[in-house]
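Propose amino acids for all 336 sites.
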């Protein structure tokens, strides 16, 4: 379920525009830790380090190198996403990172994906002034007790709510999306969630839990029958081809450039410290991965061959299957 008070532009069908001269999105994994231990996330496992004193942060100089390289594209990319495998608001340079990207004008939008718990009046004012355009907040409960149950963290829900409300009311130029997972709200509590957050967001969503971490028993959280749904609640689009490498890239804390943001699939295309994102994006190594994907999973002899996470976010606009031969020929000509 998703309700929008203010819509963003719709995507074109990917098959009609690939190969892209520049990616639609570049996602930065800024930090490897989180202040929550959400039940559905790998951070809930005992073998994960959640001690923020030992956090691995992307160095600001690595970040600046990446942003500077994005200037080489013919036009600004659609969106920079500051997220990854941790809570981005924990990064000590988050304000300067937003500001640097905004002043560089390399992207039409700059988005943070956050659990929202670190928002304060001062933080909100600072990230808005720095040039943030999109804020995506994952709400993990509707009460103090919920947060203890779902995140193993004590949160003053009233203060949490008031800080989100303050952000929305004082940042009209920022597009705010608020979402919660379906297993956290039954039918009655769905309405509570909608009543609380509909008036302090531009888009509100109840998303479907996705079983993406092998070591977590998701059936203990929700019936297995619900796993046929994609994250937006629709039935999963069927496709043999992961579309992510055709429109996005991910940059991890060390500056490694990868074709997707799946934690267990780390196919490194290069590093911003020694390579150039502009050259990597249209280069032979990236194109050969795309061609292998277009030929089918049985051809791809790497991590992609066993990954199905892409189906959790797949939309009809992403499907490339029926045009795979034509797209392969376009990519092969690009490599010549």
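Proposal:
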């Amino acid at each position: 379920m998703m309700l929008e008070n203010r819509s963003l532009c719709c995507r074109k069908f990917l098959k009609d525009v690939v190969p892209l001269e520049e990616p639609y999105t570049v996602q930065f994994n800024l930090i490897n830790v989180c202040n929550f231990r959400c039940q559905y996330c790998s951070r809930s496992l005992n073998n994960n380090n959640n001690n923020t004193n030992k956090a691995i942060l992307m160095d600001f100089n690595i970040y600046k190198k990446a942003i500077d390289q994005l200037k080489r594209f013919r036009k600004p990319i659609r969106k920079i996403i500051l997220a990854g495998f941790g809570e981005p608001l924990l990064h000590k340079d988050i304000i300067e990172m937003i500001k640097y990207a905004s002043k560089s004008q390399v992207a039409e939008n700059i988005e943070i994906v956050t659990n929202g718990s670190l928002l304060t009046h001062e933080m909100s004012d600072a990230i808005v002034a720095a040039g943030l355009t999109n804020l995506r907040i994952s709400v993990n409960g509707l009460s103090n007790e919920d947060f203890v149950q779902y995140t193993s963290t004590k949160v003053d829900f009233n203060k949490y709510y008031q800080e989100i409300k303050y952000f929305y009311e004082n940042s009209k130029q920022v597009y705010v999306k608020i979402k919660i997972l379906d297993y956290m709200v039954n039918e009655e509590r769905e309405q509570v969630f909608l009543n609380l957050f509909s008036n302090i967001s531009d888009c509100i969503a109840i998303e479907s839990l996705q079983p993406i971490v092998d070591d977590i028993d998701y059936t203990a959280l929700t019936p297995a029958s619900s796993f046929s749904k994609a994250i937006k609640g629709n039935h999963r689009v069927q496709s043999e081809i992961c579309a992510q490498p055709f429109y996005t890239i991910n940059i991890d804390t060390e500056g490694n450039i990868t074709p997707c943001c799946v934690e267990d699939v780390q196919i490194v295309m290069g590093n911003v410290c020694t390579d150039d994102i502009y050259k990597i994006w249209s280069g032979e190594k990236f194109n050969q991965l795309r061609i292998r994907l277009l030929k089918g999973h049985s051809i791809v002899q790497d991590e992609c061959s066993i990954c199905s996470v892409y189906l959790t976010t797949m939309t009809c606009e992403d499907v490339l299957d029926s045009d795979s031969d034509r797209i392969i020929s376009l990519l092969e000509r690009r490599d010549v």
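Strands lie at 2-4, 25-29, 77-83, 107-114, 134-138, 175-181, 203-207, 248-251, 256-258, 270-271. Residues 22-333 form a domain with the TIM Barrel fold (CATH 3.20.20.70).
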